[in-house]
Design a protein that fits this description.
Chain A has 257 residues and is an alpha+beta fold. Chain A is built from eight helices and eight strands; from the N terminus they run αααααααβββββββαβ. Chain B has helices spanning 2-16, 18-51, 54-70, 81-99, 121-135, 138-148, 154-161, 165-185, 191-194. Classes of the chains: A alpha+beta (257), B mainly alpha (195).
């Protein structure tokens, strides 16, 4: 490529009668590398001052070329390059952490759904069944002989979230704690009974559990009492008179508006 | 699932020695910044003489350094950094040609000249010379820029351009010869040779 026209100029040098073959060789070498320190180049320069002059001339020319080639570099290029790299690796990091975040979020969502399903699923269709199951579940937690007592003030503090209060204690209260009553926040009271503990549940009124007036199985019996905002359930063994408990509750409990 | 698997192995690698990894990351950053500071000017000028366009040169240098960052671990010898970067830049430039066929007649001599208002004699002569260098066929100007600006020997240039040394020396001779011929046609510029 481009050999044709350059060969022409090479040929003109050869045709020049004042140039010997050696001169051409020197020319070619020194034009290709003006700063050459090759032995034959140095020797040729020492033998012929004209060759030395040509080398110097080309050296100066190279200086000019270098200056011409050294076009100004944009001031901000260096900063741009550093910034771009920082952004690029930041993007990479962000992509990575985004993937991690997405994974973590998915796991959290799944975990949340599972917990929700386990804890808040409505696996019972009526209050009675659930109340019985609940009592059986906590059978081993409370004993009729327990000496723990909860005073009326503490009980009423807890009752406050149901807008209710007891005027006086129904009996020996062993425990009063909030619990999940089929997904609803409820109050679970455990009283000392004749032969075994008596459970009283204060449950907010919700539609998904059908109200059951009386319920029982071979061991336990229960009764529900519907109030304006809440149902009160009593669950006890068959030795208790639920009627007495229900009357005591109705007489004692006061609902605020 | 396969993607997750890969992720897991990569995090396991990270977990085994996080301190080592973060420190090598910091070292990489330091190396990169040193390279940018020391060599961005040379790279830009080299890009300019390849492309004759300032904006394209900037883009080319940016692309080059971005690729250099990704491949920095493969650079073992800092002394070879400049020729390594030039190799990347030439490859990027070739890619650019593949994307868009560059028409040589698109640029004019005027566009490659600096439009500086301080027109000292030296500046005018530099501009004239720049125009002439830009008119050289690229296969001549490229080794010349590498030799004059880059300070590379004939052997270095030969290996960088994948040519044999004799070819490089011939092209260097022709490059200077053409420039001198141009100079001799304009007697007013002869002081470039003799001052």
């Amino acid at each position: 490529m481009n050999n044709n026209h350059t060969n022409d100029s090479d040929m003109s040098k050869i045709d020049n009668p004042t140039n010997s073959m050696d001169d051409l060789q020197y020319r070619r070498s020194i034009y290709a590398d003006p700063t050459s320190q090759a032995e034959d180049i140095i020797a040729a320069q020492n033998a012929d001052p004209a060759k030395k002059r040509l080398a110097h001339e080309l050296y100066l020319f190279d200086e000019q070329l270098k200056e011409a080639m050294s076009i100004p570099v944009p001031d901000d290029l260096c900063n741009k390059l550093l910034l771009r790299q920082t952004l690029a690796s930041h993007q990479q990091e962000k992509r990575k952490s985004r993937v991690h975040l997405a994974l973590a979020a998915s796991v959290a969502i799944v975990a949340g759904l599972v917990v929700n399903y386990l804890q808040f699923s409505n696996s019972y269709t009526n209050l009675g069944d659930y109340a019985l199951a609940h009592v059986y579940h906590e059978e081993d937690k409370f004993f009729n002989s327990d000496n723990n007592r909860v005073n009326l003030a503490t009980l009423n503090k807890k009752m406050a979230s149901f807008n209710g209060s007891f005027n006086q204690s129904l009996g020996q209260l062993i425990s009063a704690d909030y619990c999940r009553f089929d997904g609803m926040k409820s109050l679970h009271l455990v009283y000392q009974g004749l032969t075994d503990t008596v459970a009283v549940f204060i449950v907010p009124k919700k539609e998904h559990l059908a109200f059951t007036d009386k319920f029982s199985d071979n061991k336990l019996q229960g009764e529900s009492l519907g109030f304006k905002d809440a149902n009160v359930l009593v669950v006890a063994d068959k030795n208790e008179s639920l009627e007495v408990w229900q009357r005591a509750i109705s007489d004692n409990i006061t609902w605020s508006i | 699932m396969k993607i997750f698997g890969n992720k897991k192995t990569s995090t396991q690698v990270l977990d085994t020695d996080p301190s080592k990894n973060s420190s090598s990351m910091a070292t990489k950053q330091v190396r990169y910044e040193a390279l940018v500071k020391a060599l961005h000017g040379d790279l830009y000028r080299f890009a300019y003489w390849l492309t004759h366009d300032k904006q394209v040169s900037e883009d080319l240098v940016q692309e080059t350094f971005l690729r250099a960052w990704r491949a920095l671990d493969s650079l073992k010898d800092e002394k070879a950094a400049k020729s390594w970067l030039i190799t990347i830049l030439r490859r990027e430039n070739a890619r650019r040609f593949e994307r868009k066929r560059f028409d040589m007649s698109e640029y004019e001599e005027a566009s490659i000249m600096d439009t500086q208002s301080t027109t000292t004699e030296q500046v005018i002569e530099n501009q004239w010379l720049r125009g002439k260098i830009a008119q050289l066929p690229p296969e001549y100007s490229e080794p010349l820029v590498l030799q004059v600006l880059g300070g590379y020997s004939g052997e270095d240039i030969a290996s960088m351009l994948n040519l044999n040394k004799n070819t490089v020396m011939t092209r260097l001779f022709r490059a200077r010869n053409q420039l001198k011929d141009a100079l001799e046609k304009e007697p007013g510029k002869m002081r470039l040779l003799h001052e």
